[in-house]
Amino acid sequence: MRILHTSDWHLGRAFHRVNMLGAQAGFIGHLVTTVRERGVDAVVVSGDVYDRAVPPLAAVELFDDALHRLADLGVPTVMISGNHDSARRLGVGAGLIGRAGIHLRTDAAACGTPVVLADAHGDVAFYGLPYLEPALVKDEFGVEKAGHEAVLAAAMERVRADLATRAPGTRSVVLAHAFVTGGEASESERDITVGGVAAVPAGVFDGVDYTALGHLHGSQTITERVRYSGSPLPYSFSEADHRKTMWLVDLGPDGSLSAERIDCPVPRALARVRGRLEDLLADPALERHEDAWVEATLTDPVRPAEPMARLTERFPHAISLAFDPDRDPDDPDVSYARRLEGRGDQQIAEDFVTHVRGAGPDTREQAVLRDAFDAVRADEAVREVAR
């Protein structure tokens, strides 16, 4: 069975001030063409179809167009909700849409109920594990401590239990939206840390033939059978070195697997440039970036006049400007943002405690801070679901 694995469409998202809807429509067209020309038997979309719980109308219309075009091909599609999606909204009408061969899996309780497709060699069971927010699903899975590994492990127990009831030789595919250990993050994914831990081990998915992951925006191979497709388009300059692709996976009769990366159309290259403004405007080595979307970090000791206007004379598509003056790190004028660079919320809070009282938090106080951050993030998730 030939499977096309994609994820993290983020329909409705902009790239800085650039509207990406046209590029997203171009990707959908490329997806449909790939399905038709490469003889794809099933499409899997591993979450973050939309960029937010209540997407703009234009994004909904594009999604509707994608559903119709995939249904017209007669190729089954399995989709799960991600941490950016509203599972309840995305799942509206799932029963009816399923009759057209588009299978939306947004309910955590249905993790162990697969979409079963067949080829000439037998059945392939597709299990959709939507993004499992630990605070919201821990009761469903009967886990004592709300954590990503615990709820995913419980969901996979249901998958294995169902798979054990099926005919010998039944192959299996799991769709999941999670941060798996060994994956490389970028700056455009929303933090899903719980209890100080964001990642889960790849071993959670042992026992299935292929795990199609979503959440991280770089295409990557965790193990031969556990892969991220990545986002089809860039959504931050940290993705400047990404090759945006989908995985074309061939699942053999005996569960053997081969995978090929299919490039996605990206409207413009990304470039990060750094230096003093006059140097950036004059350096001939930067000529190759003149048609790219550019993020410029200026290191001038004093902020130059009209820097963006001057940059866009050479780099018409410069869309991000930052300042990082060449100064001694101990200089009191070094920016607050620079001092916080690379620190998470927990570390910033612990540093604040140290600054205020002269000593850092002990283990108990660290746990209190961690629980507080988890509670706030869980509350935000609950409120987003209720919107």
Topology:
Blueprint: E1 2-6, E2 14-15, E3 18-19, H1 21-37, E4 42-46, H2 57-73, E5 77-80, H3 87-90, H4 94-98, E6 102-105, E7 115-119, E8 122-129, H5 134-141, H6 148-164, E9 171-177, E10 179-180, E11 199-200, E12 210-214, E13 220-223, E14 226-228, E15 245-251, E16 257-263, E17 270-275, H7 277-282, E18 293-298, H8 307-314, E19 318-323, H9 336-340, H10 345-357, H11 363-386
Parallel strand pairs: 1-4, 4-5, 5-6, 8-9, 9-12, 10-11, 12-14, 17-18, 18-19
Antiparallel strand pairs: 1-15, 2-3, 7-8, 13-14, 15-16
Pfam families: Metallophos, SbcD_C
Domain Nuclease SbcCD subunit D C-terminal: 267-355
Subunit structure: Heterodimer of SbcC and SbcD.
Please characterize this protein's 3D structure.
By secondary structure, the protein is of the alpha/beta class. The protein is 32% helix and 23% strand. It has helices at 21-37, 57-73, 87-90, 94-98, 134-141, 148-164, 277-282, 307-314, 336-340, 345-357, 363-386, and strands at 2-6, 14-15, 18-19, 42-46, 77-80, 102-105, 115-119, 122-129, 171-177, 179-180, 199-200, 210-214, 220-223, 226-228, 245-251, 257-263, 270-275, 293-298, 318-323. The strands form 5 sheets. It has a 6-stranded mixed sheet with strand order 6-5-4-1-15-16. The chain has a 6-stranded mixed sheet with strand order 7-8-9-12-14-13, covered by helices on one side. It holds the Pfam family SbcD_C. Heterodimer of SbcC and SbcD. This is Nuclease SbcCD subunit D.
